[in-house]
Amino acid sequence: MRAPAKLSLASSNAGKLAEYRELAASSASSLVVELALLPDFEMLPAFVENAPTFAENAAGKALHYSRRWDGLVFADDSGLVVPALGGAPGVHSARYAGPQATNSQRIEKLLREMRGKTGPERAAYFVCAIALAERGRALAIVTDRVDGEILEAPRGSGGFGYDPLFYFPALEKTFAEIPAEEKNQHSHRGKAFRRLLAALSSML
User: Fold this and answer.
1) Per-residue confidence band for 26, with pLDDT thresholds at 50, 70 and 90
2) Which residues pair with 145 in a beta bridge?
3) Which end is more exposed in the chain, N or C (fewer Cβ atoms within 10 Å of the end residue's Cβ)?
4) Judging by DSSP bridges, how do beta strands 5-9 and 33-37 pair with one another?
């Protein structure tokens, strides 16, 4: 039996790690992975995410931290893209209403920017890019997306970030109204992580 692949997430976010562990557990991949946060992440020199694309930020982060750890390191960058807003919030999704803003403040700003927009102008999509690196060498960079639209008011109490505004037509619900297990089957992060597992499986 193939030994588990050990991957370290370049983050100090335990919630994000838990989500990736759920994705790994629900994956149909035959590859078994053990996921952990990169040890002493907060003590390492920080990587500044200032690239113009999700893939470049993810790759830069994975390469940066993989030079400081002897093993497989993966990192992600994700966000919401609204074409009618010129691609905003985009790579600035987490800092859209300022570096210390809350989720509700980011949602409020997005609603203000979307005021007066109707029909196709409310189209939006979530993007997730994940990069895998080892000792400063990129092994894989994958991206995926999920399409939807921005509602005029939040709905649902689950999820996080912009989920209460993101309406997913296939299920006729927002991402904040969908149970986590179901969201994982459709989300940008779930789709991208399954791509990463497929890429990693072909290497081992």
Assistant:
1) confident
2) 127
3) N
4) parallel
> Pick from 22, 26, 19: which is nearest to 159 by CA?
19
**Six token digits for residue 184:** 């994982």
What does the alpha-carbon distance between residue 124 and residue 70 come to, in Å, rounded to a whole number? 39
Distance CA 107, CA 163 (A): 9
Query: Rounded to the nearest 10 degrees, how much is the dihedral formed by the CA atoms of 29, 8, 128, 161?
Result: 120
| 163 is annotated as an active-site residue | no
Query: Of 76, 77, 144, 163, which residue is the catalytic one?
Result: 77
User: Looking at domain 5-203, does it have CATH number 3.90.950.10?
Assistant: yes
The model carries a pTM of 0.94
Sheet with 5-9, strands from edge to edge, namely 33-37, 5-9, 72-81, 123-134, 137-150, 166-168, 173-174
